[in-house]
């Protein structure tokens, strides 16, 4: 079964549940699909209450289940919200990403 944008937004928001800054429940309109590459979806989440923004990447299988989310970046941890260059960087990453999260995260250096 092919996942549609509404189902993916609903599924991702059910995993995130609430804004990390103000703790308000997300609404379906807070999520916007930016990119899709197979089962990998990139969404922009913007809290309608406090305007905190996050970029979320999620793998969604045929049943519409969020398998993994990563790179949730609340705006308060950044000097400015995501911009066109940020979206282009994510797009370039997705063009070559093969979906192997294990390899991706094993290459990431751990912070002290």
Detailed description of the structure:
- The protein contains three helices and four strands; from the N terminus they run αββββαα.
- The protein has one domain (5-107).
- The chain has 112 residues and is an alpha+beta fold.
- The protein has helices spanning 5-16, 84-96, 101-107; strands at 31-37, 40-46, 53-60, 66-70.
Summarize the structure.
This protein has 3 helices and 4 strands; from the N terminus they run αββββαα. By secondary structure, it is α+β, with helices and mostly antiparallel strands.
- Assembly annotation: single chain
> Which percent band covers the strand fraction?
15-25%
Taking pLDDT < 50 over at least 5 consecutive residues as the criterion, the unreliable ranges are: 108-112
Give the integer mean of the pLDDT values: 75
